[in-house]
Amino acid sequence: MIRKPPADWNRVGEGAAVRTVRAAAVVAQGSASVARRGGHAVRGLLCYFFAIIWGFAGIAGGLATGSLPSIIGIGAMAAFMFWAGRRAFAKARATSA
């Protein structure tokens, strides 16, 4: 029967260059994950920012003018941006795992 070799079977005689390249690859992979997670988090914050601004504008504009369509339309935009922000933060959490 052919047995599976141990995980470090070829690392006995490897040079410093090979170890350096492997270490650099691990660091690059971790850095790419952090960059993707950070991008999703920034997108989530931006969506939440617009949701707050549009929510306030919908309430203030609707109360000032008494226009129900303004409250509904701007409120729908704010609700969509809130949903998009939650989705972006969920992607950031999924990327970190």
Summary keywords:
mainly alpha; 2 helices; 81% helix; rod-shaped
Brief summary:
This protein is mostly helical. Helix content is 81%, strand content 0%. It is built from two helices and no strands.
* Biggest pleated sheet: none
Shape call: rod-shaped
What's the N-to-C terminus distance? 38 Å
* Quantity of strands, as a count: 0
Helix/sheet category:
mainly alpha
> Which sequence of SSEs, written as H and E, runs from N to C?
HH
Nearest-integer average pLDDT: 82
Low-confidence stretches: none
Q: How many alpha or pi helices?
A: 2
The percent of residues in helical segments reads over 70%
The percent range for strand residues is: under 5%
Q: From the alpha-carbon coordinates, what is the Rg to the nearest angstrom? A: 25 Å
Describe the structure.
This protein has 97 residues and is mainly α. Helix content is 81%, strand content 0%. It has two helices and no strands. Helix 1 (16-65) runs antiparallel to helix 2 (68-96). The two termini are 38 Å apart.
SSE order and pairing:
Blueprint: H1 16-65, H2 68-96
